[in-house]
Design a protein that fits this description.
Blueprint lengths: L14 H41 L7 H13 L2 H38 L1
Length: 116
Amino acid sequence: MQLLKKKPKDGPVGARDFEALVEQERAVAEQIAKLEEMIDEAPERIRREYEERRSLMPPPDDWEDRQRAKRFNAHLSKGEIRNEHRYQARSTLLFVLLVVAIVSLLSWILSALAGG
């Protein structure tokens, strides 16, 4: 009796394979459409990036100095900053006096060599 029982039909034998192939074809078509869209938009995107790079200004040359000064000022009190400025002014004065002494010494040596 079992021979006479019919098996339930799932549809034609290749229907599942056909549906899977149709789904794969649709997925591939979507990927192709995305890639074609990306290719079509590439020149505009490249031009936009170029214009953006060209319009941006480079950072200023003294940016690192300003950042260092900002960190320095953030860690010190006003009195310490005043003392630091005073020390820098004194160091500058000593440097100027040193340069004047060197120039005076060189001029004295040259005048001694020229006259002697």
